[in-house]
Design goal:
Blueprint lengths: L4 H12 L13 H10 L4 E5 L4 E10 L1 H8 L5 H7 L8 E9 L8 H14 L6 E3 L10
Parallel strand pairs: 3-4
Antiparallel strand pairs: 1-2, 2-3
């Protein structure tokens, strides 16, 4: 029996990120998702083609100080998340992850979700910077 889109997205996440075994990476679970929603509702985005999710985007609004600490490798991704305060003015957005099932790549889905998330956050905050780690690690076919 074929895996559902949801199961394939979970599998893709596990293949691309080693968040369960790497203590420096953010391991996204229900508690983390709830906290991210408290930071801003646009932190988590999903595209569903009618058969389940095919794309997940995770953005973390944060401060410029925390952004610089992260970029300079003074804090980890997990620490960036943990140190980002609630109910403050955010000046930067960390594009934490963008996962897209292979057959949907090249259609602009992830790009559109990222733009929508950034624009949503910008409505409430004066964003001055966007940052990310460039990681192009594809799941095994």
């Amino acid at each position: 029996m074929a895996l559902s889109n949801f199961e394939r997205m979970i599998q893709l996440s596990e293949e691309v990120f080693s968040s369960r075994t790497d203590p420096d990476q953010l391991n996204v679970n229900e508690e983390v998702m709830e906290h991210l929603q408290l930071i801003h509702p646009s932190t988590i985005s999903e595209y569903d083609d009618g058969n389940g999710p095919v794309c997940w985007i995770l953005c973390i609004p944060t401060t410029l100080d925390l952004m610089n600490q992260f970029i300079n490798q003074k804090i980890s991704e997990k620490e960036l998340y943990e140190l980002t305060p609630l109910n403050t003015k955010y000046e930067a957005i960390y594009l934490c992850s963008a996962l897209l099932l292979e057959e949907f790549r090249g259609k602009g889905i992830a790009q559109e979700l990222c733009i929508e998330a950034i624009e949503g956050i910008k409505k409430a905050h004066s964003i001055k910077a966007l940052f990310f780690w460039h990681l192009v690690k594809r799941a095994k076919s």
